[in-house]
Amino acid sequence: MVSDYADRVDPATYVNDPIVAVYRDDLPNALCVPERVFWRLSHVAKGYELHLLPLLGGSDPVRLNRPMIQTLIDELCFVADRLDDPVVELWVAQLLKAAQTALWLPGDMHLTVEGE
Fold first, then answer.
1. Which domain of life is it from (predicted)?
2. Is residue 57 within 8 Å of 21, Cβ to Cβ?
3. Burial track 91-100 (b if 16+ CB lie within 10 A, e otherwise)
4. Domain residue ranges of the chain, discontinuous segments joined by +
5. The overall pTM is greater than 0.85
């Protein structure tokens, strides 16, 4: 049976979406997460009454310090563990890599999250 919603779990569906940018202070390139995918993560996090992820992705940049980056990692893992969604798995893997790299770097490193 083919579902009318099968495109929701196809990464190609989100190629032309507006983006939520996730970037470090020291790098010129951002990780560009499709907005609808980021909102999916955010809405599920909100449903579980998580603290940080529901606050991210708006047009105002949010600069995360080390404790906030650790919270982001924890919340991304929690949300991803509850969903059977290949699109979420794809983007959470990339978000986790960016967050963990920022967390491991020495010094006063921040991660900024900013929607369009």
1. Bacteria
2. no
3. bbeebeebbe
4. 18-115
5. yes
